[in-house]
Amino acid sequence: MPKVEQNKEREERIMTEIVVDAYGPEEQAMGWYYYLAETMQFPFTATCISKRRSSPLKEGTTVEVVDIAPADDCEREMYMEIAWEGDTLAVPLIQLEAPDADPPTQQAIADWHYWVDRGYEFG
């Protein structure tokens, strides 16, 4: 069962702007990738809102998101590159929220969270 109720406005944006004309999982992933890359204004500050086994971030950790990860890394999930210990590290976007980012970036993050929380997957 989805974690969030259906939002018609968000559904419409996702279907007509993000995954429009996407006929398979790869095309849906690329739709999301380009939507996020074109919509988000980098860099921005984000906070970790959930722990993931595949990521070193802990809840409450604040990070600087410097870019979206390369497309090859985003075939199953969307990853953001963060500044981490003098280097960059890719972490899942679902872990992050950015309440101080510009409105388009906040909307893009909320759209991704909605997609995941509704149980949608590529394919």
Automatic annotation (TrEMBL):
InterPro entries: Uncharacterised_Ca-bd_CcbP (IPR020994). Pfam families: Calci_bind_CcbP (PF11535). This is Calcium binding protein from Anabaena CcbP. It comes from Oscillatoria acuminata PCC 6304.
